[in-house]
Amino acid sequence: MPRYVEYCRTNVTADARTTLAKLDATVVEKCCLRRCGACNAGPFLIIDGEPRRGESHAALVKTHRLKSE
Amino acid sequence: MKLLFVSIDSLNRHFLDVYDPNVDLDVETENLDRFAERSAVFDAHYAGSLPCMPARREWLTGTQEFLWRPWGPIEPFDTSVPRALRAEDVITELITDHYHYFQHGSGGYYEDFNGFEFIRGHEYDAWKTTPREPSSSPIHDQLGFAVPDDPSGFGYLNPVQYVRNADGFDQERDSFAPKVFSETADWLRRNEKWDDWFLYVDSFDVHEPFHLPEPYASMYTDEDPRDPELTFWPPYGRTDRGESELSERELDFVRSQFAGKLTMTDRWFGRVLDVLDDRNLWEETVVVVTSDHGFYLGEHGWVGKPFEAPLYNVLAHTPLFIWHPDAARTGERIEALTAAVDLNATLLDVFGIVEESGPHSRSLLPLLDGEVDAVRDWALYGYWGSSVNVTDSKYTYLHPCNAEIGSFCHSTRMINPHSWFTPPKPRPDAASGEFLPYAEVPVWRYAAPSYARHSEPLLFDVEEDPWQEKRLTSDPDESDRMCDLLVAALDELETPSHQYDRLNLASRRTE
Hints:
A: alpha+beta, globular, B: alpha/beta, Alkaline Phosphatase, subunit A
């Protein structure tokens, strides 16, 4: 089953949004993940139900890929 | 005259006996039932601007704000109900545990009341700072969603705030609805010497988290309510994937805790009715009971109020009961279409100052008096920045937006269009001007992203299909008529032109 990635619309740049859309995963764009503090502080994704914070969305995705492998 | 307004947040109308319940649970709400029996019961009442604070601005100022701005403050050009009533020598009081009134993203909602009582600690209310290690609390493991990195982190909206707030709650009286309605009953007893008053009671219950004392926690389930595998606070979203995924067992438990919270709220609401009985207040008091929206408990595959979910009637079709001692139709069912924004003019009309109502509100007193059969032929509802929805009470028509076309936020404050609960960020890109058709003052206008809830229009015949399970796809004429009704409503409200663009309705605009 493909990974399930949720992100907040206002947490991503246009580039990050495009990158996320190309992932080999079910990617769900939300308007709020109800963790506004974390979301406001920096890049924030929820991957398969687990919240992840990181330096960048690319780094989060890279980590996710490594863990997938 | 005396006026008691009660909002019970997230009160799903389909859990109430008076509204033909559609749940497997036989939920005890004997006090709401007895109040409904004496009141006018509105069958076609709809939310307007959603969610919580946008609904309150509709009630308090009569402004259908979601076409112009999201969750935000009372504006300088608004006349709130308590402000208008001060000029009429009516004493006003707010009793609430609804912490959103006092949080980033609001402003101006409580300041006009002569008095207010704020009961602390619900949900994310920034109240207690101990225990420092919240994982020691027995309810910590029942939080439905995790915090990234640091469970005791300093971010806004950290779910462990609730664990700290509820630490030490060990009896029913510690819970929120009991405190709110006890305070309400006490206020009624203490304020008998005032001739004219407006008491505005806003109960955050039955809003989540559905954390309950006994006997309510076990009332509608055989599960152990403190089983750490079961959550009383589900994340919003699909029930079949992602963070919000719930098994049937977990969803059944969440439903049982919602039902238990409703019964607890009902029992303490009954204390207020008892005071009205004991003090013989009914003949001089108007009582309004309503809610801001519902809450998905698995219907259509959703839980909560997800931003990516269509606004089905579970959320938008809300309860309304009005007791008016002098109105001809008190005690009857009222089938006419009504809207949340109409409560603003209705509250003011009770005191004879309907002219102070906001720009989009229509008093329901002529309906209650039997002078008219209808006050409106459409009701608009939605969240700012997404779909715009309309009903004529027989049909609901949910019209999607093009999420690639942005929206605009209009306010005298630079509010965060999406991240409402965090400190406002300056918007150097903002323009200023008289952008509002209902206020002759300049406001800021700045862009913010739209977001989609569905890609196709969704039409339902809610008289024949109240649970909106059969999308009407074979009736283009009816779909066209409802789309025309939507455009007529937008035209009547002088909706900003960008809305027609993002809704792909520019070609249908009549002016």
